[in-house]
Design goal:
The protein is of the alpha/beta class and 302 residues long. It contains eleven helices and 14 strands. Helix 1 crosses helix 2 and helix 2 packs across helix 3.
């Protein structure tokens, strides 16, 4: 029995769509239909009920899903442990937030390239909100985002926490030493996009401190935010990792302001499928890289 046909069966079952499975598998809808028809003929049962609007598993199809997952998982594990990794081909779609892209995403990509040289990567940088939806919809295979994502069939593993800070352009001439944020109400606050977890946390932080009157400028591009900080447009509420180059170059200073900016915690998130070995391998890589980065930071500041 062709394992590729079983993989096709599982994708049609998950997405309830022949066209969706074809897109995921980088093939045509006709090829997917042919594989399913061949599998049904070999098994002597009908796996799906189809009409113009929907695709539904038959009772026999529902019974087959668990067995197909086990076969595909064992095949993937066999290929991973015994076979040549250079023989593994395909595309892995990874989503990442800006913060991870600016920190250790390049290292993760480099390790993936070294381990699976024939696997292509499709990297999408977006907000955590958008990436969480794309993971749940099966549009990307794995995301490194501000999480967790609490949803059926989704696995979220905590990877790292980034300290955040108040940061301003050196050109603003804000004095050194402890400051109260209320003293700086002439400046807008620069932070993540509207509705994001850090934006909500910042608004809640300001509200508890009785500072709701501040103007807040948002962007889904942290590159834009750091440029605005450097240009002296306002005071950034951003992860330290994003502004450390500006600080080293003397173009910006981290300010000692109360209340502090909440830290940001990131998770590796993917659909929890027993047959998706690559997602688990990439998760383990990401966790190791995050741990190495924490150890390096501790050594740097020891």
């Amino acid at each position: 029995m062709n394992v590729r046909f079983l993989e096709t069966f599982l994708w049609v079952a998950r997405l309830q769509s022949f066209s969706g499975a074809a897109e995921k598998l980088h093939t045509t809808q006709a090829a997917v239909s042919s594989r399913i028809a061949t599998l049904e003929r070999d098994l002597g049962v009908r796996l799906f009920d189809r009409d113009l609007r929907s695709v539904r598993l038959t009772p026999e199809g529902r019974h087959a899903v668990e067995q197909a997952q086990a076969i595909v998982r064992l095949t993937a594990e066999f290929r991973e442990t015994v076979g040549s990794r250079s023989a593994l081909r395909g595309v892995v779609r990874i989503g990442s937030s800006d913060t991870i892209a600016y920190s250790w995403l390049p290292e993760l990509i480099a390790r993936m390239q070294a381990r699976y040289p024939s696997v292509s990567l499709d990297v999408n940088i977006d907000t955590s909100l958008n990436l969480a939806r794309q993971i749940q919809d099966g549009e990307i295979d794995l995301g490194i985002i501000m999480g967790p994502v609490v949803a059926p069939g989704i696995r979220s593993v905590e990877a790292c926490t980034f300290a955040s800070c108040w940061v301003a352009s050196a050109s603003l001439g804000i004095g050194e030493g402890p400051l109260d944020l209320a003293e700086l109400d002439a400046y807008p606050l620069l932070t993540f996009s509207t509705g994001s977890a850090p934006h909500r946390a910042l608004l809640d932080h300001l509200s508890k401190a009785g500072l709701e009157s501040f103007r807040v400028y948002n962007s889904n591009s942290l590159a834009v935010m750091t440029r605005l900080v450097s240009a002296g447009v306002g005071i950034g509420a951003l992860p330290v990792v994003l502004v450390q180059d500006l600080v080293r170059e003397g173009r910006a200073r981290i300010l000692d302001i109360q209340p502090p900016v909440p830290s940001l915690t990131f998770h590796v998130v993917h659909q929890d499928r027993s047959d998706d070995i690559l997602a688990k391998v990439i998760t383990d890589m990401a966790l190791q890289i995050a741990a190495d980065a924490r150890a390096a930071n501790r050594q740097a500041y020891a």
